[in-house]
Amino acid sequence: MDFVVLKEYLPLFAKAMILTLKIGWMGIAFAILIGLFSAMIKHLGVPFLRYVVSVYIELFRNTPLLVQLFFLYFGLPKIGIDIDAEFCGVLGLALLGGAYMAEAFRSGFEAIEPIQMESALSLGMNHFQAMGHVILPQAVSISTPAFVANIIFLLKETSVFSAISLMDLMFTAKDLIGSYYKTTESLALLVIFYLVILLPVSIVGSIVERRVRYASFGD
After folding, report:
1. Minimal CB count within 10 Å: which of 27, 75, 105, 128?
2. Span 3-213 CATH architecture
3. Of 18, 22, 13, 24, which Cα lies nearest the Cα of 191?
């Protein structure tokens, strides 16, 4: 292990980590919105749209992110739709994550007894108020473990972005290994930087899970 090389490569990996976090968290933010919207459509049984959402979820949950990125980055230009690599990364992660988040939210919705919606409506709430103040908070609480697991999963999936020439952590490690043959040092920094990204998420996620488990929503 050459510590001089580690010190030399450190700024390159730090820059790559910033890009990885930028694309990762943007993709996750959109994935949460897509997932919540999709889960509500399925839970409410919206005609036609629930079938569209079901097809979307099955399609993206059962195909690898790498294949989806290739389709977006190399396939769409064939029909005149050009997107840059960063936008492709965010879009691919959002669509994949949205499918997983939708199932996480759906499990939360289905765990809530229907009588709670009926009780909220009988108290004078409309459907939107009942969803916002009674159903959704409980669904989020129930879904938190799956929600945190999906965030960690999506952050790890950013490692395939190197396939579309994004200078993320994996691309940087592969580039340095190919150019200077410093395999041990490059892989060591790769592991360290992924731990820097994922370990705090795992710790914070565990704390949040314990807190919401006993949360008194709806007070």
Report:
1. 128
2. Orthogonal Bundle (1.10)
3. 13
